[in-house]
């Protein structure tokens, strides 16, 4: 018995290391990847190998009482599991390849030959046992085949990461090399000192190393959110595509997560997300990936199956809201995306999900060709806007504004135009400005517009041509930029444009929601001499009390309100319009009516006392040259 224990030091250390890895690993939820599955198998194989290792030491030190066939069987299992382990490790390295390309069947067969030969030697090969009363070990054909097997697969794995560089990230290459180094170092020591039974500690250290560097499940699983991470989702997607089989992505999207957080608090939002994760798991019985804070995805085998889950899922989501008193109604939607039919690769899945996360209005979006077309148009516009920022791809046009009191067009609104290509055709700012807002680049567009306006105004000395000011749109993001005033003041100075020549339009919604910075910016601009308009008045659900406290000069009545008031059956809206006009008068604000399209509208509005009129009836937005000609012709009359 003493001999047994004296030969057990390395195994006991290995058992301790392996136990730590096993407990940590199996306590966590793991991503369902092929490489993770292989790693799990390797771990189980390592555990089995350790048990057989210990039993061989026992049988070899008790050969007098143990029948030889038991001793041989234990050795066979020990060496066999070790052969299997190195073979699995090679397969594992193979599947870690980033391009997810698998070897062909023939190549697999070829690289499996040494493993098969090693297994054959385990079944038939001879094995001798050494026992000098102090140290024990085994040797012979079976052990030799094992050494060859280890050397072969370690060299192959190393060659894989060395020559297949593009397919492996630096981190994976480093981790694999580290694993191989441990194997080689320990095998050499073992070869030199035959009595040191170190294979199990080599295995345990290698598993620990791979676990820490590549396979820690907590890297892909968010315990607090009870779901897998976005990165895990991307990995699984890549793997699904490599399989060339159809599948369906089902995604539950929450549209107003930000509002929920601010209204109910972060912990309530977390609780809600966790409940939704649990619901998705319950209904689909599949792992849930948290693609975004507000998008939960599962992968299913077919769209038909996903459709079968829909009713129950919607019902449970509705129920969950009452449970937590958080009302999502109308603020969530479920997306079904049939792959690879509608998304040829993983990137297009992510793009489609991103695109649909902005959509609202329906509870279920089953992605079809039409949605894909819209998504592609959006992507094309995004590219166009990005390019336009780099290559002077924007123009500014001017829409003259008529002032009945002066009987002149003494102001104009500057409107941006995107130079487009054939693929997209004309793109209205109504389409690309919201996209630019989402991408956080609208402020750059606004700045370009201001530069062009100032350049034009200074070049043509517009203020000497009867133009009192130009209205320039300011997006919400821009209005709340703390360095806005300094940047804009520098632009005005550079061109020598007087501040009073600029009127900034901010939307009604932006004005009502204006935080400290926006209000501060507005005050500073006003001190400089710039004026302000509240754009699109009548579209938001204004807090009139808040609006009345703000300093601005003009109220621009939204074209929708104008059109409705003059439409058939618009009597009620006309009452609203009249009250807006009288309210503006009482508040001492100037009024601009947008979207004036007919003479009748113009006359009526002038009659009501509207100070400025803008619309196709007078002129569409026109380029610089045309605008100059327009001024010359109209203002001279
Ligand atoms: P907006 O500020 O309400 O601009 C008025 C829009 O109404 C312009 O559309 C103008 O061409 C259009 N319009 C004017 N009169 C009539 C009319 O009689 N009938 C009709 N049907 N339409 C009329 P546009 O140029 O397509 O601009 C759309 C929106 O894009 C603008 O709405 C504004 O919100 C945004 N936008 C335009 N230029 C800029 C810019 O430089 N910066 C920012 N941030 N937003 C801009
Ligand atoms: Ca405007
Ligand atoms: Ca407007």
Instruction: Identify the bound ligands.
Output: ligand C2E, calcium ion
Radius of gyration: 36 Å
Enumerate how many helices there are, as a single number. Answer: 25
* Mean pLDDT figure: 89
**Strand arrangement, largest sheet?**
10-11-12-13-14-15-16-17
Low-confidence stretches: none
| CATH fold field value of the largest domain | TIM Barrel
Number of beta-strand segments: 17
Quick one: overall form? elongated
CATH level 4 superfamily of the largest domain: EAL domain
Summarize the structure.
With 637 residues, this protein is of the alpha/beta class. Helix content is 59%, strand content 14%. The structure holds ligand C2E and calcium ion (CA) (2 copies).
Note the main attributes of this structure.
single chain, 637 residues, alpha/beta, Rhopdopsin 7-helix transmembrane proteins, TIM Barrel, binds calcium ion
Q: Can you describe what's shown?
A:
The chain is α/β, with parallel strands linked by helices and 637 residues long. It folds into three domains: 2-217, Rhopdopsin 7-helix transmembrane proteins (Up-down Bundle), CATH 1.20.1070.10; 221-367, Alpha-Beta Plaits (2-Layer Sandwich), CATH 3.30.70; 390-634, EAL domain (TIM Barrel). The chain has 25 helices and 17 strands. The strands form four sheets. It has an eight-stranded mixed β-barrel, surrounded by seven helices. It has a five-stranded mixed β-sheet with strand order 6-7-5-8-9, with helices on both faces. It has a two-stranded antiparallel ribbon with strand order 1-2. α2 runs antiparallel to α3, α3 packs antiparallel against α8 (199-213) and α10 packs across α11 (266-284). The mean pLDDT is 89. The structure holds ligand C2E and calcium ion (2 copies).
